[in-house]
Amino acid sequence: MFIRIQNEHHPYFPEVWNLLQSAFHTGERRDLETLKRTLADEQMQLLVWEENHEFLGMAVCWDFKTFHFLEYLAVHANARGKGTGTTIMQQLLTDQPLLLEVQPPTDAINESRIRFYERLGLCLNDYSYYQPPYQKRGETFPLRIMSSPQLLTSEQFENYTTIVKQEVYEKWYL
Question: How far apart are CA 147 and CA 137, in angstroms?
Answer without folding.
Answer: 28
